[in-house]
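Input chain follows. Return structure tokens only.
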Amino acid sequence: MTDLTIAAVATPLGEGGIGVVRLSGPDALAIADKIFHGKKGGRLGDLKTYRVRYGRIVDPDTGKMVDEALAIVMRAPHSYTAEDVVELQCHGGVVSVQEVLSLCLAHGARLAEPGEFTKRAFLNGRLDLSQAEAVIDIVRSPTRLGLEVAVDQLEGSLSRRMKELKEILYKIVVQVEASIDFPEDDLPEAQLEDIESGILHAMQEVDELMQTADDGKILREGLKTVITGKPNVGKSSLLNTLLDENRALVTDIPGTTRDTIEEVINLRGVPLRLIDTAGIRESQDVVERLGVARSLELLEQADLVLHVLDRSEPLSEEDFEVLRRTRDARRIVLINKVDLPPLWDLDDLGDVGDSPVLEMSLLVDGTQVVNRLADAILGLVGSGSIASSAGSRALITRTRHKQALQQAQQALHNSLATLQQGLPLDLIAVDLYAALEFLGEITGETVRENVLDRIFAQFCIGK
């Protein structure tokens, strides 16, 4: 209920230079005035927006000082939530910040739900839904390029694209509706061609947006990269080399890695979610068998597979099994331990399709391996286009957006088929309105309440 005032700690839990308690709602100023005493007197309720006052936080019931603080006043609608907002900046101690929050709650505020400040910004019209989602993307962005895309979306790049696309559809709807209202006037051939041209134009725009979904997903979530191979071929060594630290335990004993190890690295602006898996082989060990099963499951989910082979050991059925399983995947084949006497050559691998093959020695050429692997990975994912598009055009970064576009595209396809078959125009209008509704889900104009709840539940309390 937006008629209640909410409060929450807006900074991470723990010690820090500053701890911020945020109030938002119709009674934010009144509640803050109960517990904040300005150094030179006066009430926060008398301040204009964007004013700061120095003073103390005092418990009204005991008269004891809790902390010294700065109080920042932001009046509606000139605030993050478009409501009256007060931020109390205290010392960044765990206890002191919680005490200030407790005083806010004791004197009329309600504890904010996760994402409720941003949800109020959306409900009050300050942000649309795609911009609200960009807020959490900014907070969680793993790379600079990902941050650029999130900031651009917060500034309205996707919102503007949706508005332009809907304007195209509205023009078509006006033409169709006018013909429905005056059925005695047959549409001239030229006007039917205009409607068809408009639908085709809209379909092209939607298609262009959908083509950005893979790049957007990579920048927001990272490229799920699974390192796989037999035990002891160098998977954990590869992980440690890429991370430049001894994250995974490396021994000469097969089966050392029994569970997955996951880390994130920034590879020239593209986030990689590296997953080191248990070596794939037949085993009587129950725990190791569970690890192998998990490795095979992750192969099916991977955006990129790094399949490691050992040149100094004979090829086995396990090697070929993984090659078969990942034939249609985005994959790089890494042949390790080339500094040792070889027991097979590249021809023995058979057809590896379009997968790049890198020969290397992690023990000898660590830094060179990283550079060569980076070139191969970035070549596979088209990171050049990702880097050039970041911050310069609207990108689809969420599965929810992509699904809405797919549904809108299907509705447009249906409307085009109806037109080309010479069926009644009111059937075309039904599909055009459906397309507009699906596009409206992206910006939140037609989104359902349960969808909103799921989106804002991803936020932390205080954001």
